[in-house]
Fold these 2 entries.
Entry 1:
Amino acid sequence: MPELPEVETIRRDLLPRVVGHTITHVFLSPDAPRLVRWPSPAEFCRALPGQRIEAISRRGKYLLFHLSDGRYLIVHLRMTGALLHRTKDAPDDPYLRIHFSLDDRSELRYTDLRKLGSMWLVEEPEAVVGKLGPDALEGLSWQALRSLTDGRSAPIKAVLMDQQALAGLGNIYSEEALFLAGIHPRRPAKSLNDDEVTRLHRAIGEVLAEALGHRGSSFRDYVDAEGRQGQHQWHVRVYRRTDEPCYTCGTQIQRIKLGGRSTHFCPRCQRRMDGDHRRRPRHLPRRAASDT
Ligand SMILES: [Zn+2]
């Protein structure tokens, strides 16, 4: 699934290409009946022609196209959605679900193999994105990260991936950030001490900046607005590196299940009770202490 760096790469690609242009026509494929969530597909297709795209913003993994009548076209790519900017006469793209013709004879095409993506046309974006937590790239202060971990006994990785707690991170970047911070993905969020929150806060920023520099990760379907793959998949430290040596310590990367999702980490760099082991009384046998 595209995560924050992939969606942000698409946004930055589209800005100089479509902002200031007017939608002249909308084609919605009949094989994508669930793509448009609001309003009805017919109303959606009728309302968009004549609208100029004034700006594009992002909240977590959602893209928001600001339209000249004050409404917002909101897009979520889910698993396999892609937004491609093509000239009108460019060859067909497979799995095309909808396209928006623009006034410069270009097209914004939405393709989606698995058809899980969604679009909305709304007056108030909060109706769609209002429940999202702070954006992991734009709005995450140390204090915000501290308060979203406080009081939560769920594993820290699950909290990082919970879009209502923090918007933008999925499996790839939550694993990578936890590795950089040296924190075990199963640690209860509330057990992180302030130093660990500081390391995690810095790691999230570093991981996202790195991935943006590489134009996102293409482990499977992700492509940018020109249909090109990202490059960050060649730079990950733990994600999908099961049994390969950790670049830092040489220990084999492990894979566990956490909340139904595969999770990768280094058992040495991300010790289970990191932060707590320093407080273990010396006389307690190591095994008994680590079982608690
Ligand atoms: Zn390691």
Entry 2:
Amino acid sequence: MEERATAYNTDANVLLLQHKYDLVDLDPFGSPVPFLDAACKSVKKLLLVTATDTAPLCGAHTGGLRKYAAKPLNTEYHKEMATRILLGRVTRDLCKYDQAVQPLLSYSKSHFIRIIARVAKGAKKADACMNRLGFIAHCFACGNRVSSHDMQGIGTKCELCGAKIRLAGPLYLDPIKEYRFCEQVHKELAIREQGKKKEALKLVATSMNELDIPFYYEHHAICKALKVQPSTIATLIDALRSTGFSASRTHFSDTAFKTDARLEEIKAVLNAL
Ligand SMILES: [Zn+2]
């Protein structure tokens, strides 16, 4: 049978509410929010969302709460904050239609955020998905941060320095990528001829090996706070690993790292370098 594609020049919301699609790729100018509800109702298997309104998502401008029903904070890890707030909004919009999100690859690049996610049908799966949302408490005095799935475990003061903490969320706290999917994308990219191939390979490889821990640390910001000369990221990651912690680079920033070590433990490793 001959394969056909049909193109429409019509309001995306009208089209999405009239038809169900296996794959929906939402790539509007600016915020995807005006189309997100209809996209979540329409999609059956794979949902892709691009957002270019990174300022409200990052907390750099107001509007995060209004558009995404979540409070962002403008921290050193604002790119990840934005990605997880967008994923949180996608989770909640899908859940209304008994659908669950399974992020396959989520990334932030220059002026946009891109989410590629599998969608699974079922009220129980959707309920389980809502449990992946949570909050992050950030201390602007010392840089300490704590993530939690509920607000009960979060106090009002920083446990390290006693300063008042600020809350961001709700946002998506579970892994934002799936290793096997990234691996397949990487293999496929490697055999293709395409523009910006090197850049794309680096992005996928770094995402694939990035720790599934919410929120990265900016290497230079920590060194400045500690008044120590920054080593290379590779040296710091090796030092954290040899001390028994997990550590990785992050695609969000070339000058940042992720680790399961707490802030005071990172400082001890840095001071020993
Ligand atoms: Zn603090």
